[in-house]
Amino acid sequence: MQRKAVVLYSGGLDSTTCMAIARADGFEPYAMSFAYGQRHSVELEKARQYAPLIGATAHQVVEINLREIGGSALTSDIDVPKGRDVDESIPVTYVPARNTIFLSFALGWAEVLDSQDIYIGVNALDYSGYPDCRPEYIAAFEALANLATKAAVEGKRYRIHSPLIRLTKVEIIRRGLELGVDYALTHSCYDPDPAGRACGRCDSCQLRLKGFAAAGIADPVDYAPQNDG
Fold first, then answer.
1. Is residue 229 pLDDT above 50, yes or no?
2. pLDDT tens for residues 170-199?
């Protein structure tokens, strides 16, 4: 019987590649997405639409309103930074405790599914400096999972897989292409226009465009016209 893995899936480039890797690793992917009050909710629409197309056996969408907490440009009325140097300090697009919240839900579903494997597409190289994307964070959460669950107490060991964590964006894209990922079925922008087109200037868009340029191929998603004036 094929082993099950819960895959945190936003509908973005990284999480879609991560799901393809989970499949290549021999797992049956159970995708989990979150409607958390994010301003870029088009990513969730894409996730709902495309999860079955990219190989998810099931797709769970968890509703949790992080706007009640705020503190991020993605969950409150704070402007999304555009055109900044992404090597600078932690930006206002950081959502407080987001990966801890998401991984906790994924851990609960994994225990219900009798799965000991969770995949998350965090990256510690080409990223925006979020503290919950670091290898030491993933190791710490894995340790927590193996202390805090009935299954672990009874002898089953959980593993948090982060296959992208030490890859550059171009390496992630190349790996995804090797696995047949159609990047037209992804969305990365933090601040899309009303038509759902990527802005091309937020941190996420800049990293994505840089990765495709380094790979020598065009990004297949639509971008809003750029106003240089």
1. no
2. 999 999 999 999 999 999 999 999 898 999
Residue among 1, 13, 4, 2 at smallest CA distance from 151? 4
Q: Which residues partner with 31 through β-bridges? A: 7, 59
Would you say 191 and 79 are in contact if contact means Cβ atoms under 8 Å apart? Answer: no
- For residue 93, what pLDDT is reported? 87
* Containing structural domain, residue 178: 3-215
**Domains in the chain, number:** 1
- Pick left, alpha or beta for residue 35 (phi over 0 → left; psi -120 to 50 → alpha; otherwise beta): beta
| CATH code of residue 110 | 3.40.50.620
Q: What is the pLDDT of residues 116-125, one digit of tens each?
A: 999 999 998 7
Distance CA 29, CA 6 (A): 6
Q: Is residue 52 part of a domain?
A: yes
Establish if 223 belongs to a structural domain.
Answer: no
Q: Which residues 6+ apart lie within 8 Å of 1 measured at CB?
A: none
> For residue 219, with 0-12 CB atoms within 10 Å meaning exposed, 13-18 middle and 19 or more buried, which class applies?
buried
Question: In the block, which residue shows the tokens 């998603």?
Answer: 221
Whole-number Å distance between alpha carbons of 146 and 114: 14
Q: Is the pTM of this model over 0.85?
A: yes
Number of other CB atoms surrounding residue 209 within 10 Å: 18
Nearby residues of 203 by Cβ (< 8 Å), 6 or more positions away? 81, 84, 86, 91, 93, 128, 190
Tens of pLDDT, residue by residue over 107-164, are 999 999 999 999 999 998 766 678 999 999 999 999 999 999 999 999 999 999 999 9
